[in-house]
Specification:
single chain, about 140 residues, alpha+beta, GIY-YIG endonuclease, 2 domains, 3-stranded antiparallel sheet, 5 helices
């Protein structure tokens, strides 16, 4: 482990957020979220994370970047966005084109109604979201 990486891990924030593990060329290898960034990242390098891919990932990591968020839910949404943007090799979930639900209403329709959409279009309709919980979004729809 290089000195810069070790310093990053030792000084990682104890807050919720997202971490980006990068290789020597600054390519993002893995994006993750955590309630406590320091504890989560230390689990990778301390050998307490038992997933099979971890030794392969850790051997390639040269740097770790942190983005602190206000809440875990915000971290979850940011993680999803960053995985779609960087398409890291070691992330399996969220790499497909699935997205969180949004509530959409087109006020230009004669009888506007709310609907659930995964990819809001830029067509003038109002969209609210994203909603990480699809169950909550579906339960909200009849109430609206």
């Amino acid at each position: 482990m290089n000195e810069e990486l070790e310093h990053s891990i030792q000084n990682a924030p104890r807050a919720p957020g997202v971490y980006l593990m990068k290789d020597g060329d600054e390519r993002v290898l893995y994006v993750g979220k955590a309630k406590n960034l320091r504890a989560r990242v230390r689990a990778y390098f301390g050998g307490t994370d038992g997933r099979a891919m971890i030794p392969f990932l850790v051997s390639r990591v040269q740097a770790v970047a942190f983005i602190v968020t206000a809440t875990e839910k915000e971290a979850l949404i940011l993680e999803n966005t960053l995985i779609k943007e960087h398409r890291p090799r070691y992330n399996v979930s969220f790499r497909d084109d699935k997205s969180y639900y949004h509530l959409r209403i087109d006020l230009g329709q004669p009888f506007p109604r709310f609907e659930l959409v995964r990819r809001p279009r830029k067509d003038g309709a109002a969209c609210f979201g994203p909603y990480p919980s699809s169950v909550a979004a579906r339960e909200t729809l009849p109430v609206l």
